[in-house]
């Protein structure tokens, strides 16, 4: 069963990558005549004559107001209303009678957007930021999402349909939607298909969590909203901490003191 689930997950990830490549091919801004397998070999460092490498964490983003927070806020509000409604029991009963899933594809599929973004980078398809900034954004987004999700699980202590505790919000769903929002922010402006692939994986994961009885429908709605908002908050604050203006004086250079050799990281204030 586990090998079967891994196979299904691989197929789904491959399908999302194909959607992403299709989105790249339909992007008018992508240079013509460049192979999809062409990779960029030039390092992301500016080389100086004195062999000092200056790290460029340039981050450029446009202020988008409250628009990115509307959809996740509605998801959280809708999930909260559904939680106090009898509809969540009706949905669970329908799921039990018509769509009872027992696999574990959702355990792997939640990481599909992350795999897709790094795969696109390997293929030479660049996102809004370089890999260093993408990784920093992802790490902070995952941390914030996990802290909020774990905190609410412990505080609310909602019983799952199976009888276990820690139902709301759905951890799998919050993680995958945080990752999907991350992929959307990095590649969504290039083509709609990147976002379609990411959100398709996220939605499929959420549906699987409900269909296998791990969560109520309200849990995944709230989880999805938390994941999306967490990523948006990270993007909103990241621009003030990792842009060129703040880190332009960060340098790396080799040193030798007696028998000791190494690299020194220096920031000039």
From TrEMBL:
<dbReference type="InterPro" id="IPR036938">
    <property type="entry name" value="PAP2/HPO_sf"/>
</dbReference>
<keyword id="KW-1133">Transmembrane helix</keyword>
<feature type="domain" description="Phosphatidic acid phosphatase type 2/haloperoxidase">
    <location>
        <begin position="133"/>
        <end position="235"/>
    </location>
</feature>
<feature type="transmembrane region" description="Helical">
    <location>
        <begin position="6"/>
        <end position="25"/>
    </location>
</feature>
<dbReference type="Pfam" id="PF01569">
    <property type="entry name" value="PAP2"/>
</dbReference>
<keyword id="KW-0472">Membrane</keyword>
<keyword id="KW-0812">Transmembrane</keyword>
<dbReference type="InterPro" id="IPR000326">
    <property type="entry name" value="PAP2/HPO"/>
</dbReference>
<protein>
    <submittedName>
        <fullName>Phosphatase PAP2 family protein</fullName>
    </submittedName>
</protein>
